[in-house]
Amino acid sequence: MMARVVLALLGGVVACAPRTVCAQGAGATHLVVITGVSGEARIKTEWHGIATAIATAATTRLGLASSRVTVLDEDSTAATGWMSGRSNRAGIERTLGALARSLSAADRLVIVIMAHGSSLSGPTRVNLPGPDMTPADFARVLAPATAPELAVIHTGSASAEFATALGGPRRIVITATKSEREQNETLFPGPFTRAITTDAGDADKDGRVSLLEAFTFAKQEVEQVFAKGNLLPTEHPVLTDGAEGGRARGFFLADARATSSSASAAALEARAAVQARLDALRARRGTMSEDEYLQALEPLILELIERTRALREGKP
């Protein structure tokens, strides 16, 4: 009975768990930012600024080594210290292919794409300098990356097909659109960047931003723009991780080895351990009666609450 009351009060915290984290390995995090053909000076400037902001935040806020941050830009002469190469097909295949073949199971690869997409004639294509690439092309290049955890964030138009082409075990795919027919310029890149480069996306105030938090923040910001303008939405952001957001909830852009400035590593690990036990219980739910499940659930929820309180108060 008590478990039912707790569940009601928490509003289904076990299902959505916005203030919980999963354990994250201690491997290295690699970041690749790709900007496609912008088509006009305004968008080129915007994408260049976003790529620079993400790369800078990755090293100054998130603890990534600069050697693990790669920026591929449409303009190989772009005046930025982060410029690693041109975002043409050869450059993308060389960069992603090398990472896909070399990363270990403890490592993570995050790919952020800003590019226009189209599907008017045949498969969806990402507009790049020179030959374009399809989602299937990206999937082929990343196919060897079965061991590392992989997150792909395509912030541009007609990006929906990436979820189908690149989804799978240990993979998180975020797209700015739910359909390849949504081909208007997207609003998603701006708020998503704010979510991961500032404190704006830290919904649970634990000093770290998960991919689920970043996605939720950006999605809400996009929806508010259309709602306030009384406009028909032309983009619908989607997150796919095969776990109803559970994997993205525990995927943090901060390097796993970097300690949060506002929460102790011990408190994070303790809460992650509780979440892991909750996830294991949820996986066994089909083999248990409702009463058995709720009895096992209650102490874990209460412990999770205590661990979350300790985290917010800075206790180990």
Which percent band covers the strand fraction? 5-15%
Largest sheet, in brief, is:
7 strands, mixed
Total domain count: 2
What is the CATH third-level topology name of the largest domain?
Rossmann fold
User: Mind telling me the CATH class of the largest domain?
Assistant: Alpha Beta
Just name the CATH architecture of the largest domain: 3-Layer(aba) Sandwich
Element order, helices and strands? HHEHEEHEEEHEHEHHEHHH
The average pLDDT score comes to: 85
Task: State the end-to-end distance.
Answer: 31 Å
Dominant shape: globular
- What Rg do the Cα atoms give? 20 Å
Separate helix tally: 11
> Low-confidence parts, pLDDT < 50 over ≥5 residues?
1-23
Strand order of the largest sheet: 3-2-1-4-7-8-9
Would you count the extended β strands for me?
9
Helicity, as a percent range: 40-55%
SS class:
alpha/beta
Description of the molecule:
This protein is an alpha/beta fold and about 325 residues long. It folds into two domains: about 30-250, 3-Layer(aba) Sandwich (Rossmann fold); about 265-305. The protein has helices at about 1-10, 15, 40-60, 90-100, 135-140, 160-165, 190-195, 210-230, 245-250, 265-285, 290-310; strands spanning about 30-35, 70-75, 85, 110-115, 115-120, 125, 150-155, 170-175, 240. Strands 3-2-1-4-7-8-9 form a seven-stranded mixed beta sheet, with helices on both faces. A two-stranded antiparallel sheet has the order 5-6. The longest helix is centred in the last third of the chain and has 23 residues, at about 290-310. The two termini are about 30 Å apart.
